[in-house]
Write a structure and sequence with these properties.
This protein is mainly α and about 280 residues long. Helices cover about 65% and strands about 0% of the residues. A two-stranded antiparallel sheet has the order 1-2. Helix 4 runs parallel beside helix 8. The N terminus and C terminus are likely disordered.
Length: about 280
């Protein structure tokens, strides 16, 4: 007779039996995030001005003056636009190197979120607090994440947006299309992250093929309900990319060195090629 193995009980990653204490998890996440914040603030005082930071700083100043990151040369500079708009109010209070340091602090405050989001992903998948803590420490001390989490460039925020998208997709795959992240249904975070990610760095769109492939491979929810939800959110998620490309066609989008007739198409191709 063929040997029949007993069926194993598969626990979902959300089963309460596997969950660590919420208080202990909060203390661990908060402690590692605080260490990451302190390390980045220390690094800020050690780092000299990066060759590309003046372009980002000029975009901040132009938003404060005109409301748009348009250089005096007429170049519309949307690389890192989210960070530029976050830092624009500071341009009314500071100038020169003082503005540089102030905007760096803004960048640090948002870029450090990669630590708790990554820890949240590990906790959600494994329900293992030591594993999440170790992961958080590794992310906290990563030299590249620390560097770009300080400099006024879009890559620190880009990392946060990408990791956040991965977390949302993991929640959808494990909890279903009705899952919530905070007070909002997880599926509605996708267009929000799409808008923020597009105007942080166009390379954000490289994450979508990866999460789409992951979703196709492991999706277990009823496909009809999932398709209805994605049909509602899909156009909203694509809208920021369409706006970005329209701006490029009408105004031309610069990469920091100039624009031209190719506009956004050239810039998108350059960014994707450089990341790939």
């Amino acid at each position: 007779m063929p040997l029949t193995l007993p069926k194993r009980k598969h626990l979902r990653v959300s089963d309460p039996v596997n969950q660590p204490s919420s208080a202990r998890a909060a203390i661990s996440v908060g402690t590692v995030t605080l260490i990451a914040l302190i390390l980045r603030l220390i690094a800020q005082n050690q780092l000299r001005t990066h060759v590309d930071e003046p372009a980002s700083l000029l975009a901040v100043a132009m938003i404060s003056e005109t409301g748009m990151p348009t250089f005096p040369s007429g170049v519309l500079y949307l690389q890192g636009a989210v960070l530029s708009y976050l830092g624009a109010p500071l341009a009314r209070l500071y100038a020169g190197y003082d503005l540089l340091e102030a905007v760096r602090v803004i960048n640090i405050g948002f870029s450090v979120l990669v630590v708790p989001i990554t820890m949240k992903i590990v906790l959600h998948i494994t329900r293992n607090l030591p594993a999440a803590t170790l992961t958080g420490i590794l992310v906290c001390c990563d030299p590249n994440l620390m560097l770009w989490g300080v400099l006024i460039r879009p890559y620190g925020l880009l990392t946060v947006m990408t990791v956040a998208l991965a977390y949302i997709v993991i929640v959808l795959l494990t909890e279903g299309v009705n899952a919530h992240v905070g007070p909002i249904r997880a599926i509605y975070w996708v267009p929000v992250l799409s808008a923020l990610g597009t105007f942080t760095h166009i390379g954000f769109w490289l994450a979508f093929p990866a999460v789409a492939l992951m979703s196709v491979a492991v999706w277990q929810a009823p496909i009809q309900g999932a398709l209805r939800v994605f049909a509602r959110c899909g156009p909203l998620a694509i809208l920021p990319l369409a706006v970005f490309l329209i701006l490029g066609r009408t105004a031309g989008i610069g990469s920091g060195t100039g624009s031209g007739a190719l506009g956004a198409r050239w810039w998108v191709a350059t960014c994707l090629q450089s990341i790939a």
